[in-house]
Amino acid sequence: MAASSSTNPMSGEEATGVTLLPAVEDRYGGVMTEMSQPMDPSAFSALLRSSLSNWTLQGKKGVWIKIPKELIGLAETAVKEGFWFHHAEKNYLMLVYWIPKEENTLPANASHRVGIGAFVINDKKEVLVVQEKTGRLQGQGIWKFPTGVVNEGEDIHDGSVREVKEETGVDTEFVQVLAFRQSHKTFCGKSDLFFVCMLKPLSLEISVQESEIEAAQWMPWEEYTKQPFVQNQELLRYMTDICAAKTNGDYQGFTPLPVSAFDQLGSLYLNTRDLQSRH
Amino acid sequence: MAASSSTNPMSGEEATGVTLLPAVEDRYGGVMTEMSQPMDPSAFSALLRSSLSNWTLQGKKGVWIKIPKELIGLAETAVKEGFWFHHAEKNYLMLVYWIPKEENTLPANASHRVGIGAFVINDKKEVLVVQEKTGRLQGQGIWKFPTGVVNEGEDIHDGSVREVKEETGVDTEFVQVLAFRQSHKTFCGKSDLFFVCMLKPLSLEISVQESEIEAAQWMPWEEYTKQPFVQNQELLRYMTDICAAKTNGDYQGFTPLPVSAFDQLGSLYLNTRDLQSRH
């Protein structure tokens, strides 16, 4: 195997002649190594032990090992050496170990899924609603806002426009986040952030996504709010009131602006009306 | 191994006499099995194949296998049978497989880490600021708002009060989310949601968290804003303006209210001032 030390990345050997795992340093005093080739468990175990000794001498803190799906057999050895799991994605498992005696300050795994509910209302005060084919509301004849999960790497405003288009075929323009809800233990112990978004329709014709949606329509607002399902759920009553206050009143949510930090662009959602800005 | 079918959970055998993995059904037409005992790879492989055949006949969709850290050696067999990784936590790896020919509708892995920045200002217009021991700002003499990561299962308002207490010893009461920022590719490809929170101080004495914080103090607001670091970062300029608008003007953020949905309590963050509520 091609291996090198973190201090001498071009060589597979330290001055002592011991082969070490290749590693790159991170900003927090740790090292990361990515497995790329199959290896005999006992050879991997020896390599891991000598590397850990070396990193301990160097005063390193966190040690990360990324194992691709095809080499998952190597994970057992790392676990035996004291590693645990940090996170996994479709094609890899990330293991981690903490060298110092003090409590670890490793970054947490992603903890939240992000969902959106889209409030889309037209000039005739009709709201865009759907019936779902799967999930807890299926087959109950309930009309609800289009909802969906924001993809990894996707902005909330882009995700809500995409979900409305996919489910109903309607083109929209993002207006504001009107509110959001945080809840816990929703799926495998993870937490959820659900953003109630207002979008302005740019088209009216409906084309239903057959895989997930049973039906979609523009429904008079009063008819939507009269549904027992909407009346009985506290969250939906709040959403109804907020949407009504936005349509008929002066309710101000958060508007996204592109804002950079540390040379990275992101979207800042804020109450632009209330801000006396110098920007 | 104790094994049972999903249709006959008390028995390890179907009418055909084939042993199957024990499984529980989920709400989305899928099944989940949790490995609990070591097994020979070839035995596991045979069991997995017969179980998959059975679940296919039953019309099941997603198949989940939860493998505890101690049994990670079993993952290699599941990967060879076509499974991939869905997510991992400290002590387990969750693998998944999709039976139907159609595109999978499996729930996404958690995609976001959630952070907070705490704006705490006292009656003398002094803001609570810290210098960090680690990370990209260490050793630069920069005074910044206390920041931190919200724990899994923790509410944003609780997390911000906790972080301020841990880093500075100051007791606070949560007031509002003033804005939030979404950014991407921050750590291992995950996204970040960073909530700018205003908190009201309930105590003034500072006691620094020695592991992470170099120093903390109450700093005159003007002195904080004059720092080149604060002037040069677009995000920090916005935060400064928003916080000033909140202190001196009429800026309205989102206030949390306990709101239930589907018998589960969560926190709904909304513009309570602008809402003409019937609640």
UniProtKB/TrEMBL annotation, chains A, B:
<dbReference type="GO" id="GO:0051287">
    <property type="term" value="F:NAD binding"/>
</dbReference>
<comment type="similarity">
    <text>Belongs to the Nudix hydrolase family.</text>
</comment>
<protein>
    <recommendedName>
        <fullName>Nudix hydrolase</fullName>
        <ecNumber>3.6.1.13</ecNumber>
        <ecNumber>3.6.1.22</ecNumber>
    </recommendedName>
</protein>
<dbReference type="GO" id="GO:0047631">
    <property type="term" value="F:ADP-ribose diphosphatase activity"/>
</dbReference>
<keyword id="KW-0378">Hydrolase</keyword>
<dbReference type="InterPro" id="IPR015797">
    <property type="entry name" value="NUDIX_hydrolase-like_dom_sf"/>
</dbReference>
<dbReference type="Pfam" id="PF00293">
    <property type="entry name" value="NUDIX"/>
</dbReference>
<feature type="domain" description="Nudix hydrolase">
    <location>
        <begin position="111"/>
        <end position="243"/>
    </location>
</feature>
<keyword id="KW-0460">Magnesium</keyword>
<keyword id="KW-0479">Metal-binding</keyword>
<dbReference type="GO" id="GO:0035529">
    <property type="term" value="F:NADH pyrophosphatase activity"/>
</dbReference>
<dbReference type="GO" id="GO:0046872">
    <property type="term" value="F:metal ion binding"/>
</dbReference>
<dbReference type="Pfam" id="PF18290">
    <property type="entry name" value="Nudix_hydro"/>
</dbReference>
<dbReference type="InterPro" id="IPR000086">
    <property type="entry name" value="NUDIX_hydrolase_dom"/>
</dbReference>
<dbReference type="InterPro" id="IPR040618">
    <property type="entry name" value="Pre-Nudix"/>
</dbReference>
<comment type="function">
    <text>Mediates the hydrolysis of some nucleoside diphosphate derivatives, possibly using both NADH and ADP-ribose as substrates.</text>
</comment>
<dbReference type="InterPro" id="IPR003293">
    <property type="entry name" value="Nudix_hydrolase6-like"/>
</dbReference>
